[in-house]
Amino acid sequence: MNATEVNQALEGFITEKLLHGDGADLTLQTPLLEYGIVDSLAMVSLLTFVQNSFGVTIPDGEVSPRNFKTIEALSALIMRVHGEASNGA
Amino acid sequence: MSSNARDSNLANLVIRAARETPHAIAVDAPDGQLSYAELDDQAARLAGALSAAGVEVGDRVALWLAKSTRAVVAMQAALRLGAVYVPIDPDSPGARARKIIVDCDARCLVTDPGRSSPLRAEDPAITSIGSDDPGAIAYEDALATDPLNEPRALDPERLAYILYTSGSTGTPKGVSLSHRAALAFVHWAHETLAASPDDHFSSHAPFHFDLSILDLYVAFSARARVCLIPEGLAYAPRQLVEFIRKHGITVWYSVPSALIMMMEHGGLLELDEPPSRVVFAGEPFPIKHLRRLRARFSSVRLLNFYGPTETNVCTFHEVLDIDPSRVSPVPIGRACCGDEAWAVTAEGARARVGESGELMVRGPTTMTGYWGHPPLGDRAHATGDIVRVVEDGVYEYLGRRDHMVKVRGMRIEIGEIESALLEHPALRHVAVVVVGTGLAARLVAFVCADTRVSLIGVKGHCAQRLPRYMVIDEVRTVDALPRTGNGKIDRRLLTQLATKHEDEHDTDERD
């Protein structure tokens, strides 16, 4: 699992489930919260998606606007949590 | 209740509590805790700074900042001076904050570091406290001002705050409320909830939303504690349930959507010590979810409050046993707070039992008027809500009579979104409809465009002009908007089209 794969998977999920297939102009820096792409409900389904696709459980303390503001931020969080879990194992 | 509590200035609640229980915690916020003595002192000092900056009785003080002790101190400071505070959604873009500041002709803006004034060069200059702007008064300096200890004695008909709601013409509407209106509600809610100094109130709603009046002022009236939930957590179900546990919340007040989310995804029903009073308002609570809450929290008082911002809470219903055969939401109940409520049928007659009509409200909690418009006076406020008379004086909510919709309890005038969309250079005609209700409510824009527009592009356009909860969720490009026989946009057909699309996709877990 690398950052590019995570980015692509997130882009795919967001385009399909949150943008009704219209992913034109979606970038790693698109403000997900500000544009109302990710709201609370979407956050719940995103967390489930992250869990199922990458086997990464985002701790409650990390579920914050800072970490969900862009694909880039979320992807960095996933990589970090994944890394911590692997090192701990 | 002591005669002090009947004082005319809403600011006296904190002043009295600071005298009686100075060391009790008044506010627990992400940026720290304040005892009543500290809140009183900081409010007196900020009032001194506002006064030195020229703020006088009746002047408007705009608050554009995150939920924090600072925001509460600023409200208290404004009230003490007899000034009118105007809370602005901290997530709103600068363009909308500016519209509100200009509309209410604010004398002063209190904001957070990291923000700059949203005003433009051509706007009247105002004093800025706490921002990064050159010339702004630093918040710390303001708190070092000599305290202004005596609050202004006031005519209770003076305005206390203005809450801006979505406006159909594209400009937000300022609902102006007096000290009298606020206190009529606070006294009633204090008694109805049997609030005590041991209570910990949650503050889930943002400060520009009228649910916050209960959280703050009923807590202050009872010398209790209010625990502020930061904006970012307002819909994070597990953190919210953890918040209740950690802060020992005893009185919870929110829109039903938040409660449902906490039940579904946050483990609310597994709480060992749930709040002893759970109050909800702002939208109907789907009965299947309320039934689960009732069954699981058998010893918790559940109360359904009703009232648009213009009237604050004007009817209420305490949920006891729910009839197993019930399929519709519980009633909004009977008039309260000394208000009168009645329904008027389409023919203009007073609705009788079994009939439905528009709910009318008159009484002490109603607004003074919309800012910049003639006052309401003795007239009743027509709520725009259609209700059915269940039994004498008891009402059940049926729906709206106009284009106002609610998404998670937040009022949205479709016209304001459409006006913002039409500012997009590529969009010629637009119509916005809401699909779904409650948690699943979504805003779908049908547009006629000169060039192809992406959903992200339109969302970005909205995000510069509208609060986040009014940003559209989906764009559908059409050659022409369907019209009804008399030439109006056929919104019913558009809603059907959008709903059908939804079913075909059947994408999500939003049930």
Topology:
The complex is a heterodimer of chains A (89) and B (511).
Chain A: H1 3-18, H2 40-54, H3 65-68, H4 71-88
Helix pairs in contact in A: 1-2, 1-4
Chain B: H1 12-20, E1 25-29, E2 32-35, H2 36-52, E3 60-64, H3 69-80, E4 84-87, H4 94-103, E5 108-111, E6 127-129, H5 139-142, E7 159-165, E8 173-178, H6 179-192, E9 200-203, H7 211-221, E10 225-228, H8 237-247, E11 251-254, H9 256-265, E12 277-280, H10 287-296, E13 301-306, E14 315-319, E15 334-335, E16 340-344, E17 356-362, E18 369-370, E19 381-391, E20 394-400, E21 404-407, E22 410-413, H11 414-422, E23 427-435, E24 442-449, H12 455-463, E25 474-477, H13 491-505
Helix pairs in contact in B: 1-2, 2-3, 6-7, 8-9
Can you tag this structure with a few keywords?
heterodimer, A: 89 residues, mainly alpha, Non-ribosomal Peptide Synthetase Peptidyl Carrier Protein, Chain A, 4 helices, 60% helix, B: 511 residues, alpha/beta, Rossmann fold, GMP Synthetase, Chain A, domain 3, five-stranded mixed beta sheet, four-stranded mixed beta sheet, 13 helices, 25 strands, 28% helix, disordered N terminus, Tyrocidine synthase 3 (chain B), AMP-binding_CS (chain B), phosphopantetheine binding (chain B), ANL_N_sf (chain B), AA_adenyl_dom (chain B)
A few lines on this structure:
With about 90 residues, chain A is mainly alpha-helical.
Number of separate helices of chain B: 13
CATH structural architecture of the domain at 3-180 in chain B: 3-Layer(aba) Sandwich
Helix-and-strand structural type of chain B: alpha/beta
Q: Report how far apart the termini of chain B are.
A: 46 Å
Write down the CATH class of the domain at 3-180 in chain B.
Alpha Beta
**What's the helix-strand series of chain A?**
HHHH
Task: Give me the number of helical elements of chain A.
Answer: 4
Compute the gyration radius of chain B: what is it?
23 Å
Helix content of chain A: 55-70%
- Cα radius of gyration of chain A in angstroms: 12 Å
**What's the mean pLDDT score of chain B?**
92
Q: Biggest β-sheet of chain B, characterized?
A: 5 strands, mixed
Q: Mind telling me the CATH superfamily name of chain A?
A: ACP-like
Overall domain count of chain A: 1
Helix content of chain B: 25-40%
